[in-house]
Design goal:
Layout: E1 4-9, H1 14-24, E2 29-35, H2 41-46, E3 52-55, H3 63-75, E4 86-89, H4 103-107, H5 117-137, H6 139-145, E5 150-154, H7 170-190, E6 196-201, H8 222-235, E7 243-246, E8 254-255
Parallel strand pairs: 1-2, 1-4, 2-3, 4-5, 5-6, 6-7
Antiparallel strand pairs: 7-8
Helix pairs in contact: 1-8, 3-5, 5-7
Bound molecules: NADP nicotinamide-adenine-dinucleotide phosphate.
């Protein structure tokens, strides 16, 4: 069995934290690199497992600085790049944090009357551009793990064009639809390097996402969602590269409609 290295962005809370937890429990992973802006107590607590390495103070919307820091971290002290077998782009947000006190308030910031250039720009920088530029920065590390290397982008059903029957959410929906295209492009371009790419909808999950303070009907637990995401990761391969999957809370991975 190859011992693998995984990298997860947005690892300090929510889905990213739980994905790190579950990866640490898997025998095939020898290292889990947890990328975040600032280390939370929950992430710090995972450090008792020496397989976890925290890389903090990474501002993924500052693309140039992130690329430099990650390239330095994963290459500078090594003769060969550290192989990355799994890169999970998880960091994401509905929009800029503008002090909304509820999800209702926040969602109304992306309607036809309220959407602003700043909110569109923010969502694209974070949800669309960051996964592209981080993949670019870590390409030699992914190549070093091929043909076992996988890139998983946490997308959303909200980025599915055929699923959009309720309108609104302009910045979030458009940035996730656009990252689906980024993922598809990476799948085509990286197939010659034998690196597989997949887009994953994690389901509707009760995390800190979107200022939802109290659980909404239909929201699932974060551990079920992370289990589904990692099941979907297992399904991604060089034959289906560029697929859009629903982790389905560990109850059987499903294909998503674009
Ligand atoms: N929850 C859902 O129902 C749901 C559904 C579909 C898709 N998703 C996707 O799942 C992913 C994880 O979301 P979640 O539910 O775990 O949400 P969450 O609890 O709000 O966590 C979001 C993560 O992204 C990071 N992040 C947010 N803004 C950032 C920024 N400007 N720069 C760097 N990092 C930033 C956060 O770090 P900080 O602590 O530093 O802010 C945190 O680690 C996202 O891509 C989201 O779009 C979630």
């Amino acid at each position: 069995m190859t011992l693998k290295n995984a990298v997860v962005t947005g690892a300090n809370r929510g889905l990213g934290l739980e994905i790190c937890k579950q990866l640490l429990e898997k025998k095939e992973y020898q290292r889990v690199f947890a990328i975040c802006r600032s280390t939370s107590p929950d992430l710090k607590a995972l450090e008792k497992d020496e397989k976890l390495q925290i890389i903090d103070n990474i501002q993924v919307m500052d693309h140039a600085d992130t690329a430099t820091r990650l390239t330095d971290y994963f290459q500078s002290t090594q003769l060969e790049p550290i192989p990355i077998h799994l890169l999970i782009h998880n960091a994401g947000a509905y929009g800029p944090s503008e002090g909304f006190s509820s999800f209702n308030e926040e969602r109304h910031s992306q309607g036809i009357a309220t959407i602003t250039p700043e909110r569109i720009r923010f969502a694209f920088e974070l949800n669309t551009a960051a996964p592209l530029f981080i993949t670019q920065a870590l390409l030699s590390n992914l190549r070093a793990a091929a043909p076992e290397a996988k890139v998983a982008i946490i997308s959303s059903a909200m980025g599915s064009i055929s699923n959009n029957t309720s309108g609104e959410h302009y910045a979030y929906r458009a940035s996730k639809a656009a990252v689906n295209m980024v993922g598809k492009g990476l799948a085509v371009d990286l197939s010659k390097d034998q690196i597989a790419v997949g887009l994953i909808h994690p389901g509707f999950v009760f995390t800190g996402f979107g200022n939802i303070k109290e659980r909404i009907e239909g929201q699932r637990d974060v551990d079920e969602s992370a289990k589904g995401v990692l099941d979907a990761v297992d399904c991604i391969n060089l034959n289906n590269t560029g697929c859009f999957l629903h982790g389905n809370y560990g109850e059987g991975v499903k294909l998503m409609e674009w």
